[in-house]
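Researcher: Going back to the complex we discussed earlier. I've cleaned up the inputs and rechecked each line, so this should be the final set. Can you rerun the prediction on the complete assembly and write out the structure?
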Amino acid sequence: MMENGQRKTGKRLLRIFLLLVSSVLVVAASASVLNYLYMQASPITAEPAKVQFVLTEDSEAAGASIGTNGTYVSLNSMAGWPNATRVYQAAVGIRNFDSASRNITLAFASWSGDTDQIEFITVIVRDAVGGTQQGSPINIGTSGSSTGELIIPAGATWVVEWNIKWKAGALSTNSVSVTLQLLVKGE
Amino acid sequence: MSRMPFPPELFLFIGIDLFVALSLLASLFERVFPTMFPYVYHVAALAGFGQIWVNYSFLLPFAEARFWSCLLYLFAALLNIGCVNFYIIAKKKLLSAAGMFLSVFTVPSFFISLFFISAYVNGDFIPMPWLPRIPIESLYAVLLVCVILLVLSIALYLEPNLFRRKRR
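Model: Rerun complete. Updated structure for the full complex:
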């Protein structure tokens, strides 16, 4: 009689244990599928850039052409005389289209060409043409050189000033290419 | 732009958990429930897993269909919980056990489900204007009610004539 009772308890415990194991499996499998669904991240949409490059006073002289959506600019007719500084006070503008201020950083990325013939190229961000300098000047050719993090107010347009000086022995055949990065914080 | 606050399969997942919990409860308290109860609920949980897999594999672009199928499954789970609660009261006449079940399982699972549904539909992905947003702060009130109900049920279990005596 006692043996019968023990057998019954054993059976019951085994049944509960099997149900428990099965439950854990079902829930774990469901959770992993749900996890895949979370990682699906759909839809990811494109939206207009909040900070864009815009044309300003010297953009024509600098040969500025803004890319689609204002997230890229090419300056293809800047030049300088040997042993003299050429200044493009507002080669291109940076405009904050957002309704809130934005943190931006303009930084030197790379350069190539006859870099040994360059005395200096500095890029300065100002709040207006000839206005107050924002952050530090960027020394082209110095790795890691940047303006530092700047806060551009909502709706403001800042200008990017280029100062170019070739060495005295530079020839008209010499040229360099420079790439800068504009980093915008937030979405 | 309408946004999906979380995949609707979360409703399915809650439903699966509820069915699994029901199955284990029915297995633990086998004297109260019919023998087949744990297995039936286990199959229901497995069906939920099947549904989640079908959603992931075939219904991914059809957000609305996914939402309604998941909601239906969750409703089925909640309906079963309600029926079990009713079964304990009406068929088994176990008032204290029904009170405990209500406070520990039925009310929390209904509230949590309602909270998630409300959070989902008020993200306006699938608008349901008649369902207001349920603030998370209301959780405290609901839990308090559950605790009071649980205490009353335990008191009733320990002293079955408690309320009868009070009525006199």
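Model: Worth noting: The interface with chain A takes residues 1, 6-7, 9-10, 12-13, 16-17, 20, 23-24, 27-28, 30, 38, 42, 45-46, 48-49, 52-53, 55-56, 60 of chain B (CB under 8 Å).
Researcher: Good, that matches what I expected from the previous run.
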